[in-house]
UniProtKB/TrEMBL annotation:
Residues 34-244 form the Radical SAM core domain. The keyword Metal-binding applies. It comes from Ravibacter arvi. Its cofactor is [4Fe-4S] cluster. Keywords: 4Fe-4S, Iron, Iron-sulfur, Metal-binding, Oxidoreductase, S-adenosyl-L-methionine. Gene3D superfamilies: Aldolase class I. The keyword Iron-sulfur applies. Pfam families: Radical_SAM. This is Radical SAM core domain-containing protein. Signal peptide: none annotated. InterPro entries: Aldolase_TIM (IPR013785), MoaA_NifB_PqqE_Fe-S-bd_CS (IPR000385), Radical_SAM_PqqE_MftC-like (IPR050377), rSAM (IPR007197), rSAM_sf (IPR058240).
Length: 297
């Protein structure tokens, strides 16, 4: 059980079960507040063996240094983070991926998750990762023929990948919501639940101007309002305005909840943000302080 102190109160987190307990009746002195966000995501590499037309990830070659990654992960663990997520590109392409997960699970108290298309995780890798990963996010944009058209891979292969991934850790589904997939959303949620998914993350597609299609947001808002299913739903934090969402945290610190480091070593508030703070040769805590000062000023 890990304990975090911040502006919201005292937060207890069990990475084995995913259980969270927030005691917000107790106030915490600012001097005791955690210096790092609850969750930090790292794009280990920009490389990916799929070519999805709507993918916003950078296409130039870049990957994070393994030793520096370990240093950053150790620092955020010691300064209050609860979990770390590995993405990309496709994180399983990263040559030290298994070693990174093992290091994080054995040398820190952080929860370990990663986001993957699933097609590269063979049984041998799954065996090595078992016990060192606490949650997996699997990308599934559409079902059957829709998935195959968008992802360029067999849907049957995807289902085979799920059967391997679920031997490692509990999993959830990431679902990009766009003109191709919106009509299958309801069916996809039921399908994901039948596969054994623990949650379903809906990600409205980012357009070329960095925004969301208004009709997709309206559809999502209406859908969430009427949803009565059993599978927990999540949405991208960038599009929560006007959505019927529950949020127990009242963060005044703009990066108390989340931060992202891209494959070049640029620290950002979100993966969609332009700019950021270059920490490729430096300390992540110092980068977080620079980012806070920029946002406040």
């Amino acid at each position: 059980m890990k304990v975090r102190y911040d502006e919201n109160g005292i937060h207890f987190f069990d990475r084995r079960t995913g259980a969270n307990l927030l005691i917000d009746e107790l106030s915490v002195e600012p001097s005791q507040w955690a210096k790092s966000p609850r969750h930090v995501s790292f794009a280990l590499t920009n490389s990916c063996d799929l070519r999805c037309g709507y993918c916003y990830a950078p296409k130039h070659r870049a990957e994070l240094d393994f030793e520096r990654l370990k240093s950053w992960i150790t620092d955020i663990d010691r300064n209050g983070s609860l979990g770390v997520g590995f993405g990309g590109g496709e994180p399983t392409i990263y040559k030290d991926f298994v070693e990174l997960c093992k290091y994080t699970s054995t040398q820190t108290s952080l929860s370990v998750s990663f986001t993957t298309h699933g097609h590269r995780v063979a049984a041998s890798m799954a065996e090595q990762l078992s016990g060192h990963v606490h949650f997996i996010r699997v990308s599934m944009d559409g079902l059957g023929a829709t998935y195959e058209r968008l992802r360029g891979r067999s849907f049957e292969q995807f289902l085979s990948a799920i059967s391997i991934l679920r031997t490692i850790a509990p999993f959830g589904i990431n679902y990009v919501l766009n003109a191709d997939t919106v009509h299958e959303l309801k069916e996809a949620i039921v399908y994901a639940q039948n596969l054994g998914a623990r949650e379903f993350l809906i990600l409205p597609e980012i357009d070329k101007n960095g925004g969301f299609h208004p009709s997709h947001l309206k559809y999502l808002r209406d859908f969430l309002t009427d949803y009565r299913g059993n599978l927990p739903l999540r949405i991208n934090e960038n599009c929560t305005d006007g959505m019927p969402v529950a949020d127990p945290f009242k963060d005044l610190d703009p990066i108390n909840a989340y931060a992202f480091v891209d494959a070049r070593g640029i620290l950002k508030r979100t993966s969609y943000e332009l700019g950021g703070v270059d920490i490729s040769q430096g300390n992540i805590l110092y980068g977080l302080e620079i980012m806070r000062s920029q946002l406040i000023n």
